[in-house]
Amino acid sequence: MLIPCPQCGPRDIREFTCKGHETYMHRPSPAAPPEAWDDHLHNRDNPAGPTREMWHHVAGCGAWLVVERNTVTHAVTGAMLAREVAR
Amino acid sequence: MAELIATSPLRDLTPITIGNVTLTEGIPGQVWAVLPWRGATEAASTALQSAHGLPFPAPGNLHKAGSTRIAWAGLDQAFLLGTTPDTALAAHAALIDQSDAWAHLVLSGPATREVLARLVPVDLAPAACPKGSARRTLLGHMSCLILHPGGDTFEILVFRSMASSAVHDLTRAMTAVAARDLRGAQTPG
Amino acid sequence: MRVSSTWQGESAASVTFTFNGQRVTGRAGDTVASALLANDIRLVGRSFKYHRPRGILTAGSEEPNALVTVGTGPDRMPNVRATVQEIYQGLEVVSQNHIGPLHRDLMAVNDVLHPFLGAGFYYKTFMWPRSFWERVYEPLIRRAAGLGALSGEAGGATSEKAYAFCDVLVIGAGITGIMAALTAAEAGADVILAEDAMVAGGQTGPQDGQIGDLAAGDWSQTRLDQLRAIPNVRVMLRTAVTGVYDDGSFAALERTGLHLPPGPDLPRETFWRIRAKQAVLATGALERPIAFPGNDRPGIMMTSAIATYAERFGVVPGRRIAVFATCDHAHRTIAALARQQGFSKLTVIDPRPDAVALGDYRLIAGAEVIGTRGRLGLREITIRKGGTEQRLEADCLGLSGGWNPSVHLTCHLGARPVWDEARAMFLPAPGAVPGLHPAGACNGTLSVAGCLREGQAAALTALRAMGRKPRAPALPDASDDPGRGRTLWAVAAKGRAWLDFANDVTTKDVKQAAQEGFTSVEHMKRYTTQGMAPDQGKSSNIGALAILADATGRTISTTGTTTFRPPFVPVTLKAMGAGAEGKGFAPERLTTSHAATLARGAPMIEAGLWYRPSYFPAKGETTWQQSCDREVRMVRATVGVVDVSTLGKIEIMGQDAGAFLDFLYTNTFSTLPVGRARYGLMLREDGHVMDDGTSARLAPEHFVMTTTTAAAGQVMAHMEFTAQALRPDLDVRFLSVTEQWAQFSVAGPLSRELMNSVLDDPIDDTAFPFMGCGAVKVHGIPARLFRISFSGERAYEIAVPARYGDALYRDLVARAEVLGGGAYGMEALNVLRLEKGFITHAEIHGRVTAFDIGMQGMLSGKKDFIGKAAAGRPGLLDPARERLVGLKPVDPDGVLTAGARLFKPEDPPEARNDQGYVTSVGQSPNLGHMIALAFLRHGPEREGHEIMMIDALRGIRTKVEVVPPVFFDREGGRARG
Question: Which of A8, B95, C65, C475 has the greatest number of C-beta atoms within 10 Å?
Fold first, then answer.
C-alpha cells in the first residue's frame, strides 16, 4: 500500500503505523455523558467501503494523517494532515 | 581541571571501502533543529535568510550557502547544519541542539544507489531524488535522514546510538553489491 | 543426446557435477535438466504418492516432476526444479521421494496399492482410532510423504532484499515483453524488464518464421542487447515476479547467485520489492498436457520443452520421438525440429482427422495415444485410430494440448480469470489489476504479429496512463496466424491418466471427488490435493477443472478456477527473511558508556533495543547476586554511578508548553517554577497509565520531559498525536533529545561530594534542593543538572552533550571509586527502586489505573487531561480491583518470584480463587529478605494479612505478608537530604 503523505509524497506503508478510525481525533468534551465517551473509546463500525483512519508517518516526517481508503478495494483516495482536519 | 575528550559515535567504524563504494564519517559540525512557531514558518524563513542566507526548506529540500546548509527534517522541522543559529531566530522558531544526536555517514561511489536500494524504501534515482534533496525514511529498521548533495554521494544521519548497526547494515549491502561485479552476476541498473 | 556444443552461438566449456553421486558432464549454460537429458538420464525422481518413476516434463519454472535437492550443508536447498537450476562445477544434485536407490525405490509398493490410495484416502483411512492420530499416523504419513528436506544447519551463504522503482515494469522477456519494453524505453520511460528464465525469447523459435529481417528465434536476443544499451532500462534475468500487491507493488525473486558456487559475499537470492507506476504483463502461456493412461513416464514431456532443449541447449531428449498434438502450433514446431540434426524419425499423433503434416515427419491423423510402456522410462506407446490399436516404439513423447495463458498474476488482487469459449482459454479479467496491462500469449494472443502488436499497445496504454504522449513506431512484419487446434482434455481409455504429476492426481480422482459431492472446484482441490504441490498446478489445474466440469455436467465457465495466490514460483523463507539474521534482526542501541562498561566486564542485558549493564563483577565475586548486593549497599552507603541515557528525553518549547503538559499529564505543570522538576503521570485516553517520569522547567517556555526507556517511542507518538490531532490550537514545539544528551545518575550519600569534584562551580542544597534543576558546567562543558532520585538516596542526574558521555562516565566512575563507590547496573538499580516502591513498566503494564497504583490523588480536578473522563469510570475505582502492594515472605528465607499468583491461604489454588499476581521481586540486602511488588484484590486494605504466593510454573509456594509498597526510608528523608 502507498500512502500519499502530504509532506513526503507517496510512501510505502512500512513507514507508517495505524491508530484506527478517525474517531480518535474527535474527543468528546470532558463533561460529555458516559455514552459519548464509550462511543469514542470503544465503539467502531467495520465498514465495507470507504473509511477514514489515523495514520502516523512515524518513520518519515512524523505527521499524523487522516487517510481516506476503501477497505474493499484497498484504494487509498486521499490523505490530509490531521491538524488541517482538526481546524 | 580535567578535560572531557569528545568521542565520535563512528570511532573505529569508518572509513570502509568495498568495491567502488566508500563509507566515511561526515565532518562533525553543528546540527540545530529549527522548529518554527505555530504560523511562523514564513517569518522564520525570512529570519533564516537574513541571518544565514538560507530559506526554511520546503518538504524534501536541502539548501546550501557556503559552509552552512539547511535540510528539511520533518513536519515543521529543519536541521541547520554547520553553524549555530543566530539568536534572532528564537523569536520565530524553537531552536534545539542536535549536534550530538546523530551519527553522520557519507556514502559515495558509482554503486551508492544500488547499496542504498538494499536498505531504503524510497526511490533515490536522480529523477526522484535530485541534487539538493532531503528524505526522512528508513535505513533497514532505523529511522534516518538522507541528504543528497549531488553526484553519487549521499549523507545518512541515524541516531547516534545506532551507529554501529547502521555501519553493519551498510557494510553488508556494500559487500553484496560489490560481489555481483566480482562474481560476474548481473547488475541490474 | 547432445547434438550441438554451442551455447547461444558460442562454444561452451564443459562443467562437471554429480547426480546421486554419479559424475555428469554438461556444458556451461545447462540446467540440471538439460545436462541430464544430454547424458540420456531420464529418471530424475519419484512421484509424491505412488512413487512412480518420473522424468522431466517441462523446460521452465512450471516443472512439476523434476524436483531435486541441490547443494550441501547449510546451503542445501530441497525441491529445486531441475529445469531452473543451472549447473556449475562441483554442484551436487540428489533426487527425492525414494527410499533406497532411485531406480529401485522401496516405496514403489504404493503404486501397486493404488486402488486403495485414491482421493480422500488419508481422510478415510487415518480417522480411527483417534489416539493413533499423533502417535502412529502422523509419523507414518510424515515419513512416507515426499519432497526434500533442509539440512537443519544454520548459516551458509546469505541472501538479500532490495527495493526497485520504475515507470514501467515489464514482466516477461518473450517477444511481447521485449516489444513492450522497447516501446516504453523509446518513450523515455524508466523500464524494468524482468524475466524468469536466464535468457530472453520465451517460446518463440524457428517455428515462428521471421520477425522483420531476423529469424524469430534470434529477434528477442538481438533486441535485448539493444535494450541493455539504453540507460533507462534495467534488464533483470533469472528474476521471477512472484506477487502483485496494491498500488503497483510487485515482489520478485532473483536467482542472483544460485547458478554459481556458494560464496561468502554474493547473495544466493535477492527478494525484490518493485514499485512500478504501470506494468505490462507478458508472462506468456504454458503448454497444456493431455491426460491419457500412463502419461507420466520419464520421457514424456511437453512439445515446447523438446523444442527448448533442442534450440537452447543443443539437446535431443530421445532417439525415437513421437508427439501427441491437437493443434497446428505443435505441427509447426515439429516441422522446424524435423529439419534439425537428431530429429529424423518423428511421428505426430493428432486426434483431428483433417490434420495435415507441415513438414518432414510421419503424421497419424484422427488418432490418440491410449497407453504407454516402459518401467523406468518410456519404451513404447499405444495408438488408437478408429477401432484399431497399434504400438509404436518411442523413448520420448511430446504433449501438445494447446496453451494455458499464464494469468496468475492478474488474480493476486482477487480478480477471477474469464473463460473464453472460442479460444478455450482462461483470460485475464479486464482491469483485474489497476495499471497492469496483459499482452500477448498471457492474454490469449498466440500469433507472432499479435504478440508484438499487443506488447506495443500495452506499453502505449501504460505510457498514456502516466500522462505521456508516445508515438507508435511501425511494427516488424511477422506471421499473424495463430493456427487452429482442438481441445482434448483427456483421452477416453482405461487406466490411470495423470493430471497433477506432482501430487499424483488422476482423472479418476477428480471424478471420484465429484461423485462424493466435492463438486465445488475449491472442494475438489482440497479433497484430491490437485494443484497443492510446489508447482501449484500450473500445468494441471485447467485440465482438472475441465474434467470436473464434465463430471458434474457443468460448463468450464460456471465451474470456475481455484484462487491463484502469490507466490507465482516458490520463494525461500531465507530470501524473504534476508537481512534479518543475526545483527540484522533489530538495531542495537548503544550508550556512550558502552565501551567503558564492557571494559569493566559487565554482562549486558537488553532493554528494548538498548544494551545496559546487568552488574559489574568485582574481584572475588562469583554470582550476580553477590555483585548486586554489593552495588545496592554501595549506593546506600557511599555513591554509585549509572548511565540513564536510555530514558526518553523530550525538549518541549513554546508559549503553550505548560498548557500542553497540563493536557498530557494528570497533574499540573504550568505552575512548576523554573529550575524545578516534578514527577508526572500520563494516562491513555481510556484511563489507564501510559507512562511516568519527571519533567523539568528550564525556562518559562522550555521544559525537558523524561519518559521510561520502554515507552519513549510510544510517548513521542502520543505527544505528536496530541499536538497535531487534538490540540493544534497550542503553540508548542518538541523534539526528542534522547540521543543528544548522555545522562548519568550519581546516587548515594556522597553524591554531592562527587558532583562538586567535577562541576566548575560547586552546588549546595539551596541552589539545588531535592527536585531542583538547572544549567551547570562540567569540566568547562555546559551541562544540565537535575536533582532527582530513583534510588531513594540523595541523587543527581548530570547530562552532557553525547560526545562527552564516554569521558564523563569514566571520570565519574573513577571518582566514585575514590570515594568508596563505583558503577552499578540494572540489577542493583531494580533492587534500589523496589526498596522504595518505585514503579516501572513491570507494574504499569497497560492494564492498571492511577487508582490501582495508589496515585489517584495525582488526577487533577481543576483541568482537563487525557484519560480524565475514562479514569473516573466506577469500574476503574472499585476497591476490589487488583491494587499495588508490597509483599515480604513470612519466613525471611522465603522465595518470591515475578509472575506468581496470589491466593488466600485457605483457598485451593484455582483460577476462580485468584487474588492477584507478583510483578517485581528482588533480594534486599538492607532488609535481609526478598521483597516484591504485587497487585492484589483490595490490596491496601489487606496490609498485615497473610497470603499464599504460588508459582505453579516453578513449583514454589511461599506464605507472604502484605505490606506497604515502600520498604525502605518511608519518609523519604534520605533523598531530600
Answer: C65
Q: Any chain B CB within 8 A of the CB of A11?
A: yes
- Has residue C129 got a pLDDT over 80? no
Q: Could you give the CA distance from residue C972 to residue C977 in angstroms, rounded to a whole number?
A: 9
CATH assignment at residue A15: 3.30.2270.10
Pairing between strand C640-643 and C741-747? Answer: antiparallel
Pairing of strands C191-194, C233-236: parallel
Q: Round to whole Å and give the CA distance between C480 and C439.
A: 15
Q: What is the mean pLDDT of residues C114-120?
A: 73
Say if CB C55 and CB C41 are below 8 A apart: no
CATH 1.10.10.1100 corresponds to the domain C488-563: yes
Q: By three-state DSSP, how is residue C719 classified?
A: helix
Closest CA relative to residue B98, chosen from C696, C801, C709: C801
CATH superfamily, with its number, for domain C289-401: FAD/NAD(P)-binding domain (3.50.50.60)
B165 touches B142 (CB < 8 A): yes
Does C247 contact A at CB distance below 8 Å?
yes
Residues of chain C with CATH 2.40.30.110: 879-977
Structural domains counted in chain A: 1
Per-residue pLDDT, C8? 61
Is a pLDDT exceeding 90 seen at residue C224? yes
pLDDT over 90 at C812, yes or no: yes
pLDDT of residue A87: 67
**pLDDT surpasses 90 at C393:** yes
- Superfamily grouping for domain C160-286+405-465: FAD/NAD(P)-binding domain (3.50.50.60)
**Mean per-residue pLDDT of chain A:** 95
Q: Is C725 on the interface with A (CB under 8 A)?
A: yes
Residues of chain A contacting B59 with CB distance shorter than 8 Å: 7-8, 61
Class of domain C6-116: alpha beta
Q: Is residue A34 part of a domain?
A: no
Q: Which of A27, A76, A82 sits opposite C724 (nearest CB)?
A: A82
Mean pLDDT of chain C: 94
Task: Check: CB of residue C389 under 8 Å from CB of residue C370.
Answer: yes
Strand runs (DSSP E) across C654-688, as ranges?
677-683
- Binned at pLDDT 50, 70 and 90, residue C263 comes out as confident
Q: Do the Cβ atoms of B188 and C234 come closer than 8 Å?
A: yes
Cβ-based neighbours of A36, under 8 Å, separated by 6 or more? A28
Sequence-separated (6 or more) residues with CB below 8 Å from residue C617:
C601, C602, C624, C627
Q: Which residue of B has its CA nearest to A16?
A: B137
What ipTM goes with this model?
Answer: 0.98
Neighbours of C270 (CB within 10 A): 26
Q: pLDDT tens digits for C67-94?
A: 999 999 999 999 999 999 999 999 999 9
Fold of C624-833: Gyrase A; domain 2 (3.30.1360)
Instruction: Indicate whether C144 pLDDT > 70.
Output: no
How far out from the chain centre does Cα C352 lie? 49
Q: Is A30 inside any structural domain?
A: no
Would residue C866 be called left, alpha or beta, if left means φ above 0 and alpha means ψ between -120 and 50 degrees?
Answer: beta
* CATH entry, C879-977, from 2.40.30.110, 2.40.128.10, 3.40.50.970, 2.60.40.10: 2.40.30.110
Torsion sign, CA atoms C372, C373, C374, C379: negative
**Residue A80 is assigned to a structural domain of this protein:** yes
Q: Is the per-residue pLDDT at B189 higher than 50?
A: no
**Boundaries of domain holding A70:** 2-25+49-86
Chain C residues with CB under 8 Å of B33 CB are: 735
Condensed to tens digits (0 to 9), the pLDDT of residues C628-649 reads: 999 999 999 999 999 999 999 9
Q: Within 13 Å and on the Cβ side, how many CA atoms surround C247?
A: 16
Locate C241 and state its grid cell. Answer: 515476479
Residue A17 in any domain: the answer is yes
